[in-house]
Design goal:
By secondary structure, the chain is an alpha+beta fold.
Length: 928
């Protein structure tokens, strides 16, 4: 008789997933979100660095961004026919095609804005009497045969310039066109002729046949050499009063270039390449810098000389633009890495907590399997397969979402990030099981945090962590976040290490107040307080992991919020320094007096709360220094009303001072050069003046000043050398600047009042100046990452609280069921659970506040946010530095969220347990 085949067992993975589908879905969602963040971060960095590169190259002025190859006219030793052939249209076009082909990668040309041609490098004076001569000087003209005129301009009047037959060096007349701006400024009309001298006795007649309007005036075709579209008044070098004359350009057809060889204008050939930035990425920067260097003086230049001539030279400022871009990226990258390391650490801790929660829920099941002969490899393999079935698809979906959300970035860093999350998740549960079940366990004693004593291994680990944290903080304070040769991960991890050390210290100190509280509560009537504290002290040893996650998350969120607050404060400070008040009204060149009617109209405008009338005089000579040196620039003399100006200085925070100390004695008396006027001075002027009164000679009056106070900044000017005195001491008083304060100032109303006055007055608002500090793509990308760090840190902190409460939820539910059989009411059950969770919630929230504040205070000296806040570098813009500042909201809100969520979860659990019967929870043989 044949044996009956054994029935196949149900697959392990399928059975486990069907047993707890809700937990599997929640676990998959956590992995998906974490994998998305891990994959989106490197792609976001790549994306904003690429956009920043394109922004810097695209917004640079064409004279700086173009690459121009130029060479002198063909040598005089050549025959005239050979010289003419080199500058004709077909030859120039052929060379241009070869130049475009030989551009080294990744440099590519924007052919729509690129051009070539011949131009006179030396402007030629025009003798025609109908040209305007503002100072009696003849205008000078540049003659250009730039390619593609008809495709880059619109004909307004006349006809396009053309050649009649073959133009040579002996041609007597050629045609030209001018732009509308040139025609208006120089009074040029169609049909006008201009006589150009030649090297011989003849003259070259240039006839104006058309007036054109540029289609894209800001493009490289017209703006790489602005003279092509806009004439300019140029000062003639002289020691006397400057005299100005017009300089402009005339546009000839390309085939008319041979005629320029006979002029004394020193013609030169050029090929101007406008770079195409649409395909460039941040990874192309090293190769792009190498390509530019090669074109300036390397193999690239030799290749260009092979096709364009042996005397070709390269002119470009692309290398300077790339240097500025590298400076910005180098300054921002380490600060962003701090946020990435912080959120990465929090996410790793939360994932480990999730693995611990799963392992704790299945401890009895796994212990039974181990006791019945299950091997660690077999159990671990099944747990790995069970986890991988959920984690791998979730991680792949997170990677896909990151790729779809953030484009134009590398794939492999995102794949590595998502893969690391999946690997950590898949390894956490099997490894934890292997460590806990190395030997079969029959019973596990109840942990008591209040009486537990740390082991020697734990002490050594904590001391090691302490050494790493102290070293990282010391290095960060000493050299800042910017390390030579790249980003120092140890320095970037300093906030995380400080948070971890603080968590370890708090866990060490946590049992002390708990023991004292237990002794006090045990003497009181009622069991709720004693039971809650006893339950709080009997937290398992793994309960320290939630505290670590909370402190690191709160510290990272506080650090990110402080970075954003520091950036906002730096921009506000820069705007205040630029205007000195909420609004600033100045005359021409900041020195022309403002009419009294305009001043009154401005002060009566809607929203104006206060005003300060200021008289500014630049270049006031200071006494010579002790070594005999004289300051050529001089100082800025500022006359103010002490009361209103002191109020303005206090409100803006720019050099506050006492108004009484600045008031001049004997104001309104007859002018006296020996009178001594108290002055508020800058440090440089204070060093020059010393303690004794020294005489000043200025247009406002002659008097002596004595420094009574020193400030580094003042609202009236943004310079570093100034003298502020009481305007009542001036002999000649006038208002050259009006500083207004108020809320909701209307820029249109203020500018309308300036126009109605008939004077050229400039109106500058602080709000408008603040708006000019717009984020470049690199700055905005870094700020978005820090905003995401705040949100993710707060989210992971709340998730850590939820996981810690879920880990002990079955025990609390059983406890409530047992206590209800003894007469515990639902309200008392809610209070019991709330009081039980309150100590650790308060510990985490209070510790997070203190650790976040201490971390920012420790790391602030080593972090400068000036490049993240402003486009300029340290010392080159309105601010010399932008320190890291604490943001109270980033400290308080996440901490309050932890307490609120803890109380809410405890209340919901008590309410839910009260709805279920005690019979369901109290089962025979249940060890809970």
């Amino acid at each position: 008789m044949r044996a009956r085949p054994a029935t196949a067992c149900a697959p392990w993975v399928r059975t486990r997933l069907r047993t707890a589908p809700g937990a599997a879905c929640a676990f998959a969602l956590l992995v998906l979100v974490t994998a998305f963040l891990a994959a989106a971060f490197p792609r976001s960095v790549d994306a904003y660095e690429t956009r920043g590169l394109r922004h810097d190259l695209g917004t640079a002025t064409p004279p700086h961004s173009v690459v121009e190859f130029k060479r002198p006219q063909p040598g005089l030793e050549l025959r005239p026919a050979a010289r003419e052939a080199e500058v004709r249209e077909d030859t120039m076009a052929s060379v241009d095609a070869q130049v475009l082909k030989r551009l080294p990668a990744p440099l590519r040309a924007d052919t729509a804005e690129s051009a070539y041609g011949v131009r006179t490098s030396t402007p030629i004076a025009a003798q025609e009497p109908w040209f305007p001569r503002p100072f009696g000087l003849d205008p000078t003209l540049t003659y250009v045969t730039q390619s593609g005129l008809s495709s880059h301009a619109t004909l307004r009047t006349g006809s396009w310039p053309a050649t009649r037959g073959t133009v040579s060096m002996t041609t007597g007349e050629v045609e030209a066109a001018v732009t509308e701006e040139t025609a208006k400024a120089l009074r040029i009309k169609t049909g006008a002729t201009i006589a150009v001298p030649t090297r011989g006795d003849d003259t070259l007649t240039v006839r104006i046949t058309g007036i054109v309007a540029p289609k894209n005036p800001a493009g490289s075709y017209w703006s790489a050499e602005p003279l092509l579209r806009t004439p300019s008044l140029v000062a003639k070098p002289t020691k006397d009063t400057p005299r100005y004359y017009w300089i402009a350009a005339l546009l000839l057809p390309p085939d008319a270039a041979p005629a320029l060889l006979s002029t004394p204008g020193q013609p030169e050939l050029y090929w101007r390449i406008a770079p195409d930035v649409s395909h460039l990425t941040a990874l192309d920067v090293p190769r792009l810098r190498t390509s530019v260097a090669s074109l300036e003086g390397g193999p690239g230049l030799l290749a260009m000389r092979d096709v364009a001539g042996a005397t070709v030279n390269t002119t470009t400022d692309l290398d300077e633009i790339l240097t500025g871009y590298d400076g910005m990226r180098t300054a921002i990258q380490p600060v962003v890495t701090v946020a990435a390391v912080g959120i990465g650490a929090v996410a790793a801790v939360v994932l480990l907590m999730t693995g611990g929660l799963l392992a704790g829920r299945r401890h009895a099941e796994l212990a039974l399997l181990r006791a019945r002969g299950g091997s660690l490899w077999g159990i671990g393999g099944r747990l790995l397969a069970e986890t991988a079935v959920t984690a791998v698809p979730a991680g792949a979906l997170g990677l896909l979402l990151a790729v779809l959300a953030v484009g134009e970035a590398r794939l492999w860093p995102a794949a590595v990030g998502a893969g690391a999350v999946v690997a950590l998740v898949c390894a956490a549960l099997p490894l934890r099981t292997a460590l806990q079940h190395r030997t079969p366990q029959t019973h596990i004693g109840r942990d008591n945090l209040a009486t537990a004593r740390p082991s020697r291994r734990r002490t050594v680990a904590e001391l090691t962590l302490l050494v790493l944290a102290v070293g990282a903080v010391f290095a960060l304070r000493r050299r800042g976040t910017d390390a030579e040769g790249g980003t120092d991960l140890l320095v970037s991890a300093a906030p995380v290490l400080v948070g971890l050390i603080a968590a370890v210290v708090l866990v060490r100190l946590y049992p002390l107040p708990l023991r004292l509280a237990l002794r006090s509560v045990s003497r009181l009537r009622g069991a709720i307080g004693f039971l809650s504290l006893a339950r709080a002290g009997r937290t398992s040893a793994s309960g320290t992991l939630p505290l670590l996650a909370l402190l690191v998350a709160l510290t990272t969120a506080a650090f990110g919020g402080s970075v954003l607050a520091g950036v906002a404060d730096a921009r506000d400070d820069a705007a205040v320094l630029a205007t000195g008040a909420d609004a600033r009204v100045t005359g021409a060149a900041d020195s022309a007096p403002l009419p009294a009617g305009l001043v009154r109209a401005m002060e009566q405008a809607e929203g104006v709360r206060g005003s300060a009338r200021v008289q500014v005089e630049f270049g006031v000579a200071l006494p010579a220094a002790d070594n005999g040196t004289q300051d050529a620039k001089g100082a800025t003399l500022i006359g103010v009303d002490p009361a209103t100006y002191a109020a303005l200085a206090r409100s803006t925070g720019l050099g506050p001072f006492s108004a009484d100390g600045l008031r001049a004695k004997g104001a309104g008396a007859a002018p006296d050069e020996d009178r001594v006027v108290p002055a508020l001075v800058s440090p440089s002027v204070a060093e020059r003046l010393g303690d004794r009164p020294l005489g000043l000679r200025a247009l406002a009056g002659n008097f002596k000043v004595k420094a009574v106070a020193t400030v580094t900044r003042t609202p009236a000017v943004d310079g570093s050398s100034f003298i502020v005195v009481d305007a009542a001491a001036f002999t000649h008083r006038q208002t050259t600047a009006l500083l207004l304060t108020g809320d909701g100032l209307d820029a249109k109303e203020l500018r309308a009042a300036a126009r109605h006055s008939g004077e050229k007055a400039a109106v500058q608002l602080r709000s408008e100046e603040r708006a000019t500090y717009v984020d470049t793509p690199m700055q905005s990308g870094a700020e978005r990452i820090y905003l995401a760090a705040i949100i993710a840190g707060a989210g992971y902190a709340l998730l850590a609280v939820l996981l810690s409460l879920l880990q002990t939820a079955p025990e609390r539910t059983t406890l409530l069921a047992r206590l209800r059989t003894m007469g515990l009411t639902s309200r008392q059950g809610g209070r019991l659970l709330g009081f039980e969770a309150l100590p650790q919630a308060l510990l985490a929230a209070g510790g997070g506040l203190l650790v976040g504040w201490a971390t920012i205070a420790l790391l602030a000296p080593g972090i400068d946010l000036v490049r993240l806040a402003l486009s300029s570098g340290p010392g080159t813009g309105p601010l010399a530095t932008a320190p890291l500042r604490t943001d109270p909201w980033s400290l308080v809100l996440p901490a309050l969220g932890v307490i609120v969520l803890t109380g809410a979860v405890a209340g919901v659990q008590a309410w839910w347990a009260g709805r279920r019967g005690s019979i369901t929870e109290l089962r025979a043989g249940d060890s809970r």
